[in-house]
Records
---
Amino acid sequence: MTHVEPNVPKAHVLEAKRLHVRHPGVDRDVLRDASLSVLEGEILAIVGPNGSGKSTLLRSLGRDMEIRRGAVYLEREDLSAYPRKRLARRMARLPQDPLSPEGLTVEALVACGRSPHLGAFSSLAPADQDIVSEALDAVEIADFRTRPIESLSGGERRRAWIAMALAQEPRFLLLDEPTSALDLRHQFELLELLGRLNRERGTTIVLSIHDLAHAALVADRVAVLSRGRVYAVGTPEYVLSEETLLDVFRVRSKVELEDGVLGVKILGPGDPIRNF
Amino acid sequence: MNSLFWQVRSRTEIIFDQPSAWTLVCAIALVVASAFAMANGAVDLALQELPASIVDVDHPFHAVIWDVRLPRIVCGAIVGMDLALAGALLQTTVRNPLADPGILGVTAGAGVGALFVILFAPGHSEWIPWAGFAGGMLAVGTLLSFAAAKRGQAGTLRVVLSGVALQSVLFAVIALMTFIFADRAPAFAAYIVGSLNGLGWSDAGRMLLPSLLGLAAIVGIVRTLNLLLLDDSAAGGLGVHVVRSRMVAASAAALLTAAAVSAAGLIGFVGLVVPNAIRLLVGPQHGDLLPATALGGAALVVVADLVARTVLAPLELPVGALLSLVGGPYFLYLLWRKLA
């Protein structure tokens, strides 16, 4: 168990400093002066309305976006100068809706996760095979190992990609809306899995997520994004207040803590809804 | 939803459960095709006489086999291997099974480059593949800037349409060059469909170095190619320099294409038909796909050329015409399946 007590100060291991980022071909910044520190061994959830820059911030943390101004630091090293393969050994990222080639088996996909650890011409060693099997077991898709990705359901496919990320044996795991397109049960199982990874392997996890109750359930801390800036960061109880919801999401709500579970009830729009 | 690959695979698994078995099948096909191609032609030879005629210097067929048929078979095999591998590389590079050096205009680009040497440096046939490579790279560069990883149908059509547009411009250049310099240019019709007529050992020798370099490049990037099959973002997350790897793969494809064009002109569809067919049997992983594709492409061109020079003997048809006759409908089928 590497879970650290809340009062012990933890190292800032992944830091975004004053980021300005825009999408290619758009002359407007999606992130405008966004800063965020990720602490060692925590689960940090990034929430915010559509277009607030959740995915962009997450992708910037994983060096999957071109940064115009500002910088991201991984363990005090500038991420833009970090060697590719070394980064892939430290950090795994899961795109929102990754493509997979027709005919690729689950096992072959998960084995791709070992490639940052292999030399240019070496192939999978028995130790690598074991790690692949472990990853398949961890997400409970070992039964499907020889099946093609395209034959799996949405939830199974998502788990296969997570297994690939696990096979990278990363210290950092970045997931872009991992629960989207999953049914309620699968959403819950996925959050469970992330919690387990975090507890058992000490993996630092950053994820973007839409559902605030889920964010509160899984995350140690929540970062709320609003219009390309970080509006607030802190524990779910502290950040996910009725005030924040009105300010950022423009909804009236009732937030209550019950048996340690944060309940978020949306009452209605915070301001008059325009007729389209 | 089950892909065609898995339907085919689940049936063929009963015969071969190892993808490498298909490489062996392709190798045997190449050997058998070559034997028939050596025995048959303007004058036929019984197959059982073949070993004697190869070894025995005094055999009446010895000269025909060594000076005419064998170099042509070797040329056909290299051309087929190069084009099939180039097709597989391009399909991975633009992540689209419809890619083919012909359809994307890489063959035509190499054809323009080769034509420049043929017309303006007639004594330097050894430059032809390298000039072709330069022309092919221009086509590849144009193509990659269009292909920029768009998903879905829009992306599929974009790549194919930009290739078709590029190809028609390059065809026009070839037409103009062969028309203006009709005295020393190769015949437009034969050049544009491609043929192996009259090829000898020197043509095979000219293809050797660029083909070997192309193969060496493939060996160096084979695992990266597997990662390129994934999403750009996912491949980048696994430590792949996506843009650079794609450029290396496409350059190797241009080099292999240029080698083939330098001997046989603009043969099309080998790069489309062979990798797609092999992929149905062995799956998308390049360690399985590329060896079988190389041998399968070689076998296909040797067989097609055998048919081309015997079916209406003594008339020798251009092998490229036969291949397009098969490849064109196959392309339509793939397009229909992709867009359906």
Note: Chain A touches chain B through 37 residues (CB under 8 Å).
---
Amino acid sequence: MRLQRLFAIAVLATLIAFPLALFAHHSRAHYGTEESTTTGTVMEYKWRNPHVFVVWEVKDQSGKQTQWVGEMASVTSMIADGMTKDSLKQGETITVISFPSKNPGSTEALIKKITKSDGTVVVDNSRAPNLRQP
Amino acid sequence: MRNRILLSILGAATLLFPLTGVAQQRGAFGRESTESQPDKELTPGPGWKTCPRCTNNKQLAAANKTYKVEGHAFNPHDLSGVWGNNGMELDVKNVPPFTPQGAKMFEATRSEIPTTNSRDGMLICDPLGYPRLFAYNYGMQFVMLPDRVLQFFEWGHTWRDIWTDGRKLPDNPPQPRWLGYAVGHWEGDTLVVEGNGYDERSWISEDRRNRIRGFAHTDQMRTVERYKRTSYGTLEAEMTVTDPQVFTQPWTTKGKIELRPNAELWEYFCVPSESDEYNKRLIDAAKTSAK
């Protein structure tokens, strides 16, 4: 009986560990699985390697302002997805769908979709089927 | 009791499997089809070409038609062209057993955090070295010269000389190199490239199974590559890594690399100041969350 219990624990531990290993795939384990949608103002747009990122400021109902840092991929990967160095400008209003970091209080996120206030879609990985990192 | 155990296992698997699926659906930048991908590739202007990694799948399919890749005539001894956009990943399902020393070296590369490899020299812009540049390069180009084949890589915008003038590999190279020493010869229609003299600071590859370790090697590592152009648009490639101090057997990876007819190499430099800013603003946040 004791052996059976040990076996069950070992199998369960393997099952638990395996998906966690996949979460860690390609350096994105710290991003959660819950989507977040926020609207704010572009503060910085870094068209740089190793990963392009955007900083946008969101004001909540109490007036508190929070700056989010949204990560994408390398410059050339983002070109394949339709972005350019001119895709975003400081001061523009954008709506961002992202996967925020799981770290409580953190303001980093993995970008899924960015839309401008006129409806222009800047980038949209909604159809992307698997997790990749450059 | 046995039923309870089975039920527990099934329950855990049911709960955990969907989470894996969700995790894999995020962040396929520049790879698979996405809603915002343009039909037309971006180039610097008329007469210029796009870059290997700038090309999405539908643009590549269109380029293959435009450049009449299928059925195109080719010389099997001319490997010229831009090949692939990410290198040929080493076969981690086929890693040979480690020697005791190899096991220690592999474990010593283990990251301090689970989210990325904190010990990876790439984070601080160390050269990737070889054969890591074979496995990860953002696009590779062969240029055929009478006495050598030049192998260019977009990552690092650097090149490797493969000498075909009859010289032999040095027995005891005076200086280990990140890209080692390489000589090539033809066996029928296959270019065989032998390499040695590699700097121990590089990795053979990161371990892409979970990216928390890297495959280390000693200065005794040797590589043998075999390249065969089987059509205008296809390069069959094979990489064998031998390091008796690390592995009990050779490690061989076989695969195919596609021509990128619409591309020329742009530049990807790992710029220390850029990496430093990225590490501070995004990687360090991951370190915090991992603790």
Note: The longest strand of chain B covers residues 222-231.
